[in-house]
Write a structure and sequence with these properties.
The complex is a heterotrimer of chains A (323), B (203) and C (121).
Chain A (H helix, E strand, L loop, with lengths): L3 H10 L2 E7 L4 E4 L1 H6 L4 H4 L4 H4 L5 H14 L3 E3 L25 E9 L5 E9 L1 H22 L9 H18 L3 E8 L2 H26 L6 E4 L4 E7 L3 H17 L2 E3 L2 E3 L3 E7 L7 H18 L5 E3 L5 H7 L2
Parallel strand pairs in A: 11-12
Antiparallel strand pairs in A: 1-2, 1-5, 3-4, 4-5, 6-8, 6-11, 7-8, 9-10
Chain B lengths: L6 H26 L2 E4 L3 E6 L3 H9 L4 E10 L4 E9 L3 H7 L6 H26 L4 E3 L3 E4 L5 H9 L4 E11 L2 E11 L1 H17 L1
Antiparallel strand pairs in B: 1-7, 2-7, 3-4, 3-5, 3-6, 4-8, 7-8
Chain C lengths: L2 E6 L3 H10 L6 E6 L2 H10 L4 E4 L8 H10 L5 E6 L4 H9 L4 E4 L4 H10 L4
Parallel strand pairs in C: 1-2, 1-3, 3-4, 4-5
Helix pairs in contact in C: 2-3
Classes of the chains: A alpha+beta (323), B alpha+beta (203), C alpha/beta (121).
Chain lengths: 323, 203, 121
């Protein structure tokens, strides 16, 4: 045929792999792209089994794919999103990626020679760029999601996300009849601290103390920044007694060690209000916050640097303050 | 759609599709060697605007997957073939067919099945009308990762007409349903009509 | 001798295609039916020598027709022409007394071979 004069050069120059096997999966042809990437010579591998030459190929899977092409005389495909590569080849990208291997989109086509003997043609398209960009995108999205949930300064959960989790935990505790407690605390006399050491000083205290406190909590607890110097902790599977215990330890952790800021040694304390979930219903999480808040107020009123638990007798006061 | 195709033309189209489906299902059955029965598909030709509401009912709210493949032939015959699945028994089918049981393999199985169904069906259809087709690689979307109903809506709005083919097949004791949609542009409809007229005249 | 032939298929196109696939020298008197019920009505009221039968039809399908033909011991040959060509179906159809099974789209040469094989032409 008169087209032959360009088919060879095109196949040689093509930036995609072309591989042809016969019905026994023996190699009939490998184009230059593949020869170079796999560092093999066509005359060396011609007639050999594809699976012997490329030992890393998932044999059972590829045999099945090839079989479907031969039997049904229809194309079959493989995308890098499902299987990163069919033939393990190094990629030539100048920038780094998580994997040193080429990501491949493959098409398998039925081919019959002039005598009608069946073959399969495997076309390999280098999709490494797409692969790399996808990874970067995932990473960026993860960071974005992270920043949507996290308070930038203290690395605690931000208020919105923390309240969502509180709500979910309350529902869960109600459903499974498990105890749940809430701690609300804030830094005592924070305004004075800021005035004395400046906002940077105040910030470094917040950063350091939240790190200290976080270290004392379990993975199942939710620690969020509720306001400027106000924080909340959801203690799952914890009743009042256990919650008070935790609260005392946090108090001590804060008061016993000063925060070093520049040349200053800043002493600080916290007041903690504690409440255990004790009602049902959809607004239970709001009530719980209100109760812990009342307890916190009492802790402040009674001298600060202490833990106070909400008690039922406070109800009247609660109603007044939440109006 | 009777405004587009005459009664006779619709009948002709249905027959072409039945035959194509019979051939495709036979090939699939032989290849997977476990299928037993494939019902002759019912077809409906609808404007693409009508597609999404119908599928919303069936496929939103359950784990579902969508496999889409473009096709291109001579004389302006082109379109997109979409196969939709509910995923609830997909993993059982996957093991039966020798795929591994993780979700990636489940999607691979669906892609393979869809590709076989689509290409053998369309090839057979094309052959009956003296045309031949080439295909783009199939793309799969799963509701476990994204909103399938939305994706369907996004795709469908680019096409004028949708040929809805309901396929239901039975695999040993499990029945496995899927829906195939062939989305075609307005110009392709005219091409198809010309073909149908020619076929009817030749008889 | 003119053979009375019944072509039974719900698709107009299919009926036309069968008719078109019959060799020109085939001396046949052709009647058609759109479904199994119509087919049986015709078979019970007229002499039919050969039936070309589709399997998937409304009202009464091809299997139903074959069963009735067998039960009522009707004297006619049946050649099944269908899109559904699974081995199970072929087996079933042969067991019910069909002469042959041809898959759609009908290949005229193959049809001629079968007609010759069974001495119908």
């Amino acid at each position: 045929m008169s087209d032959n004069w360009f088919t060879s050069p095109v196949l040689e120059q093509l930036n995609s792999g072309v591989l042809v096997v016969d019905e026994q999966f023996q190699l009939v042809y490998l184009n230059t792209f593949l020869q170079r990437h796999a560092t093999v010579q066509l005359d060396e591998v011609k007639g050999k089994s594809l699976f012997k030459v490329f030992a890393d190929v998932p044999e059972a899977w590829l045999r099945r794919k090839f079989a479907s092409v031969l039997e049904l005389q229809s194309p079959s495909f493989s995308s890098w999103e499902q299987r990163q590569y069919v033939i393990k080849l190094p990629h030539m990208r100048p920038f780094t990626s998580a994997s040193p291997f080429m990501a491949q989109n493959c098409t398998m086509l039925p081919l019959n020679d002039s005598a009608g003997r069946r073959h399969v043609c495997l076309l390999i398209e280098d999709a490494t760029d797409a692969f790399v960009y996808q990874q970067r995108l995932q990473s960026t999205l993860q960071k974005l999601e992270y920043s949507n949930r996290i308070d930038g300064l203290t690395q605690c959960l931000n208020r919105r996300y923390w309240e969502e989790q509180l709500k979910l935990e309350v529902q869960r505790a109600q459903r499974y009849q498990q105890p749940l407690s809430l701690l609300l605390f804030d830094l005592d006399k924070f305004k004075q601290l800021n005035d004395q050491y400046g906002h940077l000083g105040g910030d470094s205290v917040l950063i350091e103390l939240s790190a200290r406190i976080r270290a004392l909590l379990r993975d199942t607890d939710w620690f969020g920044r509720y306001g400027g110097e106000e924080f909340g902790i959801v203690l799952t599977n914890t009743a009042l007694e256990g919650a008070l215990d935790v609260a005392q330890r946090l108090c001590l952790a804060v008061s016993s060690i000063a925060v070093i800021f520049k040349e200053y040694s800043i002493q600080s304390t916290i007041s903690v209000g504690v409440a255990q979930l004790n009602i049902m219903g959809e607004r239970a999480h709001e009530v719980l916050i209100g109760q812990a808040d009342v307890a916190l107020y009492n802790a402040k009123r009674n001298g600060r640097n202490r833990v106070v638990a909400f008690s039922a007798g406070e109800t009247e006061f609660l109603l007044k303050t939440t109006e | 759609m009777r405004r587009v195709f005459s009664e006779e033309q619709l009948d002709c189209l249905q027959e072409l599709i039945n035959v194509a489906m019979g051939l495709a299902s036979n090939k699939l059955a032989r290849f997977l060697s476990t299928f037993v029965y494939l019902q002759v598909p019912s077809i409906a030709l609808v404007s693409s605007a009508q597609v999404s509401p119908q599928f919303d009912n069936q496929y939103s709210g359950v784990d579902s997957a969508l496999v889409s493949q473009g096709f291109l032939g001579n004389d302006g015959l082109t379109g997109e073939a979409i196969v939709l699945y509910q995923l609830d028994n997909a993993h059982r089918i996957a093991t039966l067919l020798g795929y591994e049981t993780d979700s990636a393999s489940e999607l691979e199985m669906l892609t393979d099945i869809s590709s076989i169904l689509t290409t053998t069906f369309l090839n057979s259809l094309a052959e009956q009308i003296d045309n031949s087709l080439s295909y783009s690689a199939p793309r799969v979307l799963s509701s476990r990762q994204e909103n399938v109903a939305e994706a369907l809506l996004d795709t469908v709005c680019h096409w004028d007409l949708a040929l809805k083919v309901d396929i239901s097949y039975q695999l040993i004791d499990h029945s496995f349903n899927c829906d195939m949609l062939l989305l075609i542009p307005g110009e392709a409809v005219l091409t198809i009509q010309q073909i149908l007229v020619r076929i009817l005249e030749e008889c | 001798m003119t053979l009375p032939v019944l072509i039974c298929d719900d698709s107009l196109l299919a009926r036309k295609q069968v008719r078109k696939s019959l060799p020109e020298f085939f001396d046949a008197d052709i009647v058609t039916a759109e479904n199994g019920m119509q087919a049986l009505t015709i078979l019970r009221s007229q002499e039919i020598g050969l039936v070309f039968l589709d399997l998937t039809m409304p009202e009464l399908d091809g299997i139903g027709v074959l069963e009735a033909i067998k039960q009522e011991a009707m004297d006619c040959f049946v050649i099944v022409i269908s899109a559904d060509i699974q081995p199970e179906m072929q087996k079933r159809v042969t067991e019910l007394g069909a002469l042959a099974f041809i898959h759609k789209p009908v290949n005229p040469e193959k049809l001629v071979l079968i007609l010759k094989q069974y001495g119908l032409i």
